Amino acid sequence: MSQQVRGVVALSKGAPVGLETIVVPDPGPGEALVRVEACGVCHTDLHYRQGGISDDFPFLLGHEAAGVVEAVGDGVTDVAPGDFVILNWRAVCGQCRACLRGRPWYCFDTHNARQRMTLASTGQELSPALGIGAFAEKTLVAAGQCTKVDRAASPAVAGLLGCGVMAGIGAALNTGNVGRGDSVAVIGCGGVGAAAVLGSHLAGAAKVIAVDIDDRKLATARGLGATHTVNSKEADAVDAVRELTGGFGADVVIEAVGRPETYRQAFYARDLAGTVVLVGVPTPEMKLELPLLDVFGRGGALKSSWYGDCLPSRDFPMLIDLHLRGRLDLDAFVTETIGLDEVEKAFERMRHGDVLRSVVLL
To answer: Which end of the chain is more exposed for a tag (fewer CB within 10 A), N or C?
Structure first.
């Protein structure tokens, strides 16, 4: 029997979000009903609200979430009612060419719940953000979007692994393959970039250089393991990174902004045969121009990082375990906790750079 719960909905492009009553169906085959305990306010949710991702309004926002499975549909065996889970937006299929080649983190046919949640007032179908829609008391997802983790973890912290923190840590560990003794530069130290700093520190990088235009973010990066900081409003980022790496450039440069000008900085701030990782998300109209001879002559690798190239079933439990053992400070990402009715105000604080993450607690 379907249930009615409260959820944060963006009804139209650019309009303030509001609390609405939504109808959540019982889980069908391969689906899970999750009682949401916490959900981070990610910049992607703001993009949805502004119509920057699609025009498929109304959107049920929220996706960086953790909660408890309440019910599952037929055929679900990996999770069960009572499991504490982190939600992810790339439930792998197990059958596509990437999965069959043993690279499920590149799955080309990820999926979400088949049934749609709806507005109680009109019956209109909702588009859940990233297939999750977790600014709600309960949400319906594909069972493969649920990863069971240790219940000892705080929901506010655990949920952040569902998107931004995992994207940044994974950009360093999985995509950039940062290793012991490497030099790393991270350009853009918002939530994803700060996580990339933390991931580089965790990997044993000898030098982690944080680059941003906001001294508050640079201070946070220092607390997460940056050995050096560069305010690129006051100094040329490329020159500064080169100076800090003996004139050579960094072994790995992680671009966490997603703009052509910062990508060029990343390209020229790396060492010969070094690696550039793009984890910042560009907008459709952005174009990049680089001298092809420089691309050839500098060698190395230019990579894009999809969700930190993570495999949730492998990475979420591992990172939660490291956190519980005191080796991964995920608490540092939670700037404030708020209620469901404060999401619009959280978007405003995000715009002004006042928070690393606001987290909705339910």
So the answer is: N
CA separation for the pair 265, 254 (Å, rounded): 10
d(CA 93, CA 111): 7
User: Would you list the DSSP string of 104-154?
Assistant: GGG-SS-B--SS--EETTT-PBPEEGGGT--SBSEEEEEGGGEEE--TTS-
Pairing verdict, β 146-148 and 207-212:
unpaired
Q: Which two tokens stand for residue 327?
A: 């080796």
Tokens of 317: 């439990």
Closest Cα partner for 34 from 9, 71, 3?
Answer: 71
pTM: 0.95
User: Structural domains in the chain?
Assistant: 3-162+329-361 (3.90.180.10), 168-306 (3.40.50.720)
**Residue 9 pLDDT:** 98
Place of tokens 């990402």: 333
Nearest-angstrom CA–CA distance, 87 and 148: 9
Q: How many CA atoms lie within 13 A of 310 on its CB side?
A: 30
Instruction: Divide the 362 residues of the chain into consecutive groups of 10 and give the mean pLDDT of each group.
Output: 96 95 98 98 93 93 98 97 96 95 94 96 97 98 98 97 96 98 98 97 98 97 98 98 98 98 98 97 92 96 96 97 96 96 96 93 96
- pLDDT at residue number 1: 82
Q: How many residues are there in the chain? A: 362
